[in-house]
Amino acid sequence: MKPKLFPPQAHIFVKDKDPWINIADKNICYDEMYDPKIAWPKESLDRYKEYLESN
């Protein structure tokens, strides 16, 4: 696997992470699940909406 090709866009549930887990980019962290309407770019929301409508 090549994890650097797919870096995380956000870290969720960080309040429950084990202390030995190091999150390098602390700018994109959520203690709980985030609201996609706020956190996702418009393109992602549009794509998700299109998916939901087609299934």
What descriptive keywords fit this protein?
55 residues, 2 helices
Describe, in plain words, how this protein is organized in 3D.
This protein is mainly α and about 55 residues long. About 30% of the residues lie in helices and about 0% in strands. It has 2 helices and no strands. The chain is extended and about 40 Å long.
Radius of gyration: 14 Å
**Which class best fits the helix and strand makeup?**
mainly alpha
What is the average of the pLDDT values? 91
Straight-line N-to-C gap: 31 Å
> How many independent structural domains?
1
Percent range of helical residues: 25-40%
Q: If helices are DSSP runs of H or I spanning 4 or more residues, what is the number of helices?
A: 2
Assembly state of the chains shown? single chain
Number of strands: 0
In N-to-C order, the SSE pattern is HH
Determine the strand fraction and express it as a percent band.
Answer: under 5%
The description of the largest β-sheet is: none
* Low-pLDDT sequence parts: none
- From the spread of the alpha carbons, the general shape counts as extended
